[in-house]
Design goal:
By secondary structure, this protein is of the alpha+beta class. Among the domains are: 26-56, no CATH class; 114-243, Nuclear Transport Factor 2, Chain: A (Roll), CATH 3.10.450.230. It is built from six helices and four strands, in the order ααααααββββ. It has helices spanning 26-36, 47-56, 64-77, 80-139, 146-154, 159-180; strands at 183-196, 200-212, 219-232, 235-243. A four-stranded antiparallel sheet has the order 1-2-3-4.
């Protein structure tokens, strides 16, 4: 369809259009509307002009809502004070007590290790002395004091060995010593520790024993004895006495 302009007898001094601000003749606008097929609005502007105004009107910038919300998001995403307080609680109530326990346990273990080593060293010295003195007491006696000597020696023993020693000395050693006037003299030239803990020890004792009798010439023997000791209270007592 062609766009044709036609004259209109209507007064050309009409009021200016409210939309564009330019002076248009209503008759021409109607002719343009008829030719182009666009309806005329109540204020004399065509729909196309309304569309143009709407298209040319400035649209709100995109992302304005995002811009408005950005400070809230930033405030929500950045919260170092809360995180710092949380880590402070973790350190104060979790890490420090655990570290204290670990350090205390380590110090206690080291202290116990030092104390234990000292007790073991003391046990080595005491057990060797007890084995040496006990061996001499068990095997040394005189004819007139055999009962007293061997009964006193029995107090250095413990366990089953104490019972068996008492039976053997009362049945054989003490009667023979009285009847035959037998004396036994014992020396321990050396003793060696096999192993020791705070309450148990094994000592190898080297024994020289001499028998003197009124009816027989003196005799001497040398033997090695494995002596096992147990600590009962504050004393080291012989629980086994085994010649090897």
């Amino acid at each position: 369809m062609r766009l044709r302009l036609k004259s209109d007898p209507v007064n050309r001094a009409q009021a200016p259009s409210a939309t564009t601000g330019r002076h248009r003749r209503p008759g021409i606008e109607r002719e343009l509307a008829v030719v182009s097929g666009s309806p005329i609005s109540s204020d004399g502007a065509t729909a196309d002009e309304d569309d143009i105004d709407e298209e040319t009107s400035p649209a709100p910038p995109e992302g304005s809502d995002d811009v408005d919300d950005a400070p809230h998001d930033a405030a929500a995403s950045t919260c170092p004070p809360a995180v710092g307080r949380r880590w402070a609680r973790v350190v104060a109530y979790g890490l420090l007590p655990a570290l204290t326990v670990v350090l205390g346990g380590g110090a206690g273990y080291l202290t116990w290790g030092v104390v234990s080593a000292r007790f073991v060293q003391l046990a080595r010295v005491e057990s060797v002395r007890a084995a040496t003195d006990g061996t001499m007491a068990l095997l040394t006696y005189q004819p007139d004091t055999a009962d007293k000597d061997l009964s006193a020696a029995r107090e250095r023993l413990t366990g089953k060995f104490k019972t068996s020693y008492a039976v053997f000395t009362h049945q054989h050693v003490i009667p023979d010593a009285r009847e035959k006037h037998i004396s036994s003299v014992v020396t321990v030239p050396a003793a060696a520790l096999v192993h020791a803990t705070m309450d148990h020890a094994v000592v190898m004792v080297f024994v020289n024993q001499s028998f003197i009798s009124d009816s027989d010439p003196p005799t001497s023997t040398a033997s090695d004895v494995r002596v096992t000791l147990e600590k009962v209270g504050r004393r080291w007592l012989i629980s086994e006495f085994t010649p090897v």
